[in-house]
Specification:
With 497 residues, this protein is an alpha+beta fold. The chain has a domain of 342 residues. Helices cover 39% and strands 8% of the residues. It is built from 16 helices and eight strands. The strands form two sheets. Strands 2, 3, 4, 7 and 8 form a five-stranded antiparallel sheet that branches. α6 runs antiparallel to α7, α8 runs antiparallel to α9 and α8 runs parallel beside α10. The radius of gyration is 32 Å and the shape is elongated. The chain starts with 5 loop residues before the first strand and ends with a helix. About 18% of the residues have low confidence.
């Protein structure tokens, strides 16, 4: 991103599908096979029965009821349902029965079948999931729940692992001072958190240097030595950090977006639209998504400090007019590390919560046809994809093992990205495309919610404005000298149909 200050260290339509193994006709009884049946000669009325008991019409009148009925040989199947082959793959009419829903939960039906309220056969996709022409084939076959698609992040530590060095190792730390003092930590966007700090005594005092990169003009690297201070025994509270992030949302979120993402096409505007939508609707799930944007990006942001004495301010002070933070004092190395590891916990928890919220939102749409949740689903999905794009960039930028990077990105795009895009496209089939949204014609679909309609109108204008740019982002590749190189790589697939 433009100011990415990164620390571096040396068819729903299946009307023509037949249930596999079942007759193609509509009169099933006519196709059941009866044993030893004979058919009367042409010109005579047809009677199905045994050879010995069959008879034809004669002048004396029709055969007796007892004779006709006794001539029928009973089908070996007790019911018509038993006559159908046991293979019940494919389309199922109507909604699921309670016992079928329980079965679907046990089998964990593929996402495509969840969309259609159907179930898959255990261990393999159902017949309806196989046809390549199926409208909802865009949803990959998977038995993962939406809440589980964050599995690719399990071992990802690029946001803080690079800060683990000799400076924070037990072998380097000799002792801590018993005197505490208050430091005010900030990322430079108008808000602060206070922490109790104490001096730390180490064997190697040269390990407290911090390097970072700024890209607001040209890409430049900076380095300063910082104070020998550490947070107290309690460390940095994630609860305190959560409140700190909340302050950014309540006051100054758009200023943060303008400053941090300055120059990044589409992302800057889509985040502002999501924020205005939140201001109108006050939806907790959208707030969490906005908070995730803050938490993730501030994890990578250089950390500054205030509250030092006049003498101490010179330790870690930036004295370079080319730096955006000229005149500011960089937080002590160990405090910086503690802030980042705590912030990393915060955004991971937010990410987990957002996936749970998204799962509930999709369930409400798929079971109750509550399309008024569509704008909320879009905002959350767009923000998730934007964060995942940043994760890809940060993985490329900080991870030295190219194979590990490729594996991480492939794991992300193989199912998680495909699931988000596929499910969104599945519910989008009930609505006009984002590029064709017209509030005057389509407002009733969203229950005439003014905030939702306005948000989609803004998205339509934005997508149409950057259509050519977005169409070319599908094949974006990493460029170390361009912090925006992967921007909208995933998000463009969400908004361009």
């Amino acid at each position: 991103m433009h100011l990415r200050n990164t620390l571096v260290f040396p068819p729903t339509d299946y009307q023509n599908e037949n249930v596999s193994g079942s007759p193609s006709g509509t009169n099933l009884e006519a196709q059941l096979v009866y044993q030893n049946s004979t058919i009367s000669k042409p010109g005579q009325n047809i009677i199905i029965g045994t050879d010995s008991e069959s008879s034809s019409w004669d002048d004396s009148g029709p055969p007796s009821t007892s004779t006709a009925s006794s001539g029928l040989t009973k089908c070996p199947c007790e019911t018509l349902e038993d006559a159908i082959t046991e293979n019940k793959n494919g389309r199922r009419k109507g909604s699921l029965q309670p016992e079928q829903r329980q079965q679907a939960l046990e089998f964990r039906a593929c996402l495509r079948c969840k969309v259609l309220n159907k179930i898959c056969d255990k261990g393999e996709p159902c017949g309806g999931c196989k046809p390549s022409y199926a409208r909802l084939w865009q949803v990959p076959y998977t038995r993962m729940d939406i809440t589980d698609i964050g599995y690719f992040m399990k071992d990802w530590k690029a946001d803080y692992e690079r800060h683990i060095s000799l400076g924070v190792s037990d072998g380097n730390i000799e002792s801590f001072s018993t005197a505490y003092r208050t430091l005010y930590i900030t990322h430079g966007y108008g808000h602060f958190i206070s922490i109790n700090a104490r001096k730390v005594f180490v064997q190697d005092e040269k390990c407290f240097g911090i390097n970072w990169v700024e890209s607001h003009e040209n890409i430049r690297a900076f380095e300063v030595q910082t104070a020998q201070l550490s947070a107290g025994k309690e460390g940095v509270s994630t609860t305190v950090l959560s409140v700190y992030l909340d302050r950014h949302i309540d006051s100054g979120f758009e200023a943060f977006v303008n400053e941090y993402f300055k120059g990044t096409i589409f992302i800057t505007e889509i985040l502002k639209i999501a924020f205005r939508y939140y201001q109108n609707e006050k939806l907790p799930s959208v707030r969490k998504a906005l908070k995730l944007v803050l938490a993730y990006n501030l994890t990578f942001h250089v950390t500054m400090v205030e509250g030092l004495s006049e003498e101490e301010q010179f330790i870690g002070k930036i004295d370079d007019v080319r730096s955006k933070f000229n005149g500011k004092t960089i937080a002590p190395f160990m405090v910086n590390f503690q802030i980042k590891t705590a912030m990393a916990q915060v955004w991971r928890k937010l990410h987990e919560d957002i996936l749970q919220d998204l799962s509930l939102l999709y369930s409400s749409v798929l079971t109750g046809d509550k399309l008024e949740h569509f704008p909320t689903i879009f905002m959350i999905t767009a923000i998730l994809l934007a964060i995942w794009e940043e994760m890809q960039f940060d993985c490329y930028y900080h991870e030295l093992d190219e194979n590990a990077v490729n594996e991480f990105c492939e794991k992300m795009e193989s199912s998680p990205v495909a699931v988000l895009l596929g499910l969104f496209q599945a519910i989008s089939s009930k609505l006009p495309s984002l590029q064709a949204w017209d509030t005057r014609q389509h407002h009733h679909v969203l229950s005439s919610n003014a905030a939702a309609c306005d948000a989609l109108s803004e998205v339509r204008k934005l997508v149409n404005k950057h259509k050519n740019y977005l169409s070319g982002r599908f094949s974006a590749i990493f460029n170390r000298d361009d912090f925006d190189c992967l921007s909208s790589k995933l998000l463009s697939q969400l908004v361009i149909s």
